[in-house]
Design brief:
Elements lengths: L1 H19 L2 H15 L2 E7 L1 E2 L2 E2 L1 H14 L8 E4 L8 E4 L4 E6 L2 E14 L4 E13 H26 L3 E6 L2 E6 L13 H15 L2 H7 L4 E7 L6 H12 L2 E4 L8 H9 L5 E5 L2 H4 L39 H9 L9 E7 L7 H4 L6 E4 L5 H12 L3 H4 L1 H14 L3 H10 L4 H19 L3 H19 L5 H19 L1
Parallel strand pairs: 9-12, 11-14, 11-15, 12-13, 13-14
Antiparallel strand pairs: 1-8, 2-3, 4-5, 6-7, 7-8, 9-10
Family: Belongs to the AAA ATPase family. BCS1 subfamily.
GO molecular function, one term: ATP hydrolysis activity
Catalytic activity: ATP + H2O = ADP + phosphate + H(+)
Length: 490
């Protein structure tokens, strides 16, 4: 831009100088004019760096929005307000400028927006960038210091003022929605000791950049949340996001058509984020290959568990999302293209997952979301009824403590009972006791007995499957197992 302006104004300047100045001053004046017009250097900061999001662009956008509303040099601003938000955000309009001063040095920012045509999608899109103008003799003095200060201030503004965002993928990109889930670890119905352990683990991760770098590992952590439906897996994710003040990227695998599209999505995920894949056993068909083999079929979107897909090598057909593509995302080479990320898988049945997803280094922690225990029940009573133990009475506390372990009800089931009678505490507790007792009688036996029977059944199933010569005994055992399960359900 400087060169173009100089080329346009230099002839005009020469003509004017020839008309008004004597010959002995023309040469000096021309040198001064060229030096003045060409004394600036320009730096372009693009929105994207290839597949990556340019964090410097985001930082500049946040920083300029904080100074644009008070700057006298900016005559036109864009105003935005997110849905359900009371905060108005200021920004530079397209191709407008704003001035700034840093350590006594004047600089100028311009928001540049240009239209471009995408041949792949046959659509028009926009290329956005910021252009920084600095005098040449000030460049070495302030450039790096100024940009570092912008990054620091942007992080502070982002942390103090922003609303958390949950992103969902569709159309090959991420769509943001304000995240206003009120769930915290204080309201999460879970064993308090386990909650404290998880919170400490999250704190250690968030402050562990030097530790991960020293170990030579990508700065990420994986959590597998598993257990029956209604035990609080989604609430746990919300509590983690609110505790760390991280954004959430809800990755819907059924919307991803190929491994290459998956990689592009991952490259656009910012740091300080939680990447969630809920119901991983149901999102796409990735069967447990350690179980009985099925008839071979050609590899496709619905059969990513083919042998070469689990090898971690290059996929033969990149037009479908495969297990190896997902594994490369969790701990392969592509997992290190980003930092300070938490990966969360959820499933209702851990037995349906392929062991390749569960091995060490992929999911760092396996957290079983259990049925409601008495410590978790106390949290629910506090959340819904504002009741403590002393408010309930010794008899009610004793009954609740005895029956809740046998009832095997999820926090969601108990919450449904409490919220119906939220205005009448006595009725709520009385009805809850009736429901718990009825569920305990229906289950038959204590919780410990049920767990012990489950362990014995798993051992019997393993022995039966490892004895192929005893086919009739194996089949008889399966029939008896189904009968026992049906009896318990009835």
């Amino acid at each position: 831009m400087s060169e173009s302006w100089t080329s346009l104004t230099a002839p005009l300047g020469q003509t004017l100088l020839q008309m008004v100045l004597p010959p002995e001053l023309r040469s000096a004046s021309l040198r001064l004019l060229k030096r003045t017009l060409g004394s600036h250097c320009y730096f372009e900061i693009n929105e994207n760096d290839g597949f990556n999001t340019n964090e410097l662009y985001d930082a500049v956008q946040i920083y300029l929005s904080s100074i644009a509303s008070t700057s006298a040099s900016c005559s036109r601003l864009s105003l935005t307000r997110a849905r359900n938000s009371t905060a108005t955000t200021y920004g530079l309009s397209n191709n407008k400028c704003v001035a700034d001063v840093f350590h006594g040095v004047a600089v100028q920012w311009k928001h540049v927006v240009t239209q471009r045509y995408s041949q792949t999608s046959s659509q028009h899109d926009e290329k956005r960038s910021f252009t920084l103008r600095i005098r040449k003799h000030d460049k070495d003095l302030i450039l790096n210091t100024y940009l570092d200060e912008i990054m620091k201030k942007a992080k502070d503004i982002h942390r103090n003022n922003r609303e958390r965002i949950i992103y969902t993928n569709s159309g090959g990109g991420w769509n943001p929605v304000p995240f206003k889930h009120p769930g915290t670890f204080d309201t999460l119905a879970m064993d308090p000791e386990m909650k404290r352990d998880i919170m400490e683990d999250l704190r250690h991760f968030a402050a562990g950049q030097d530790c991960y770098q020293r170990m030579g590992r990508a700065w990420k952590r994986g959590y597998l949340l598993y257990g029956p439906p209604g035990t609080g897996k989604s609430s746990m994710i919300a509590a983690m996001a609110n505790f760390l003040e991280y954004d959430i990227y809800d990755l819907e695998l059924t919307e991803v058509s190929s491994n290459s599209e998956l990689r592009k999505l991952l490259m656009k995920i910012s740091s300080q984020s939680i990447i969630v894949m809920e119901d991983i056993d149901c999102s796409i068909n990735m069967p447990n290959r350690s179980k009985a083999p099925q008839a071979p079929t050609s590899q496709s979107f619905s059969d990513p568990g083919a042998p070469h897909a689990a090898s971690g090598g290059k996929d033969r057909n990149d037009s479908r999302i495969t297990l190896s593509g997902l594994l490369n995302f969790t701990d392969g080479l592509w997992s290190c293209c980003g930092s300070e990320r938490i990966l969360v898988f959820t499933t209702n049945d851990i037995g349906k997952l392929d062991p390749a997803l569960l091995r060490s280094g992929r999911m760092d922690r396996h957290i079983y979301m259990d049925y409601c225990s008495y410590p978790a029940l106390k949290i629910l009573l506090q959340n819904y009824l504002s009741c403590e133990d002393e408010d309930l009475g010794e008899a009610a506390v004793r009954e609740l403590r005895e029956v809740v372990e046998k009832a095997k009800m999820t926090p969601a089931d108990i919450s449904e009972v409490l919220i119906k009678n939220q205005r009448n505490k006595e009725k709520a507790v009385s009805e809850l006791l009736e429901v718990l007792k009825a569920r305990a009688e229906m289950n038959g036996g204590s919780r410990e007995e049920c767990e012990l029977n489950g362990i014995k059944e798993e051992e019997q199933e393993k022995r039966a499957l490892e004895s192929p010569t005893e086919g009739s005994d194996c089949e008889e055992w399966r029939v008896n197992k189904r009968r026992r399960q049906n009896k318990r359900e009835e």
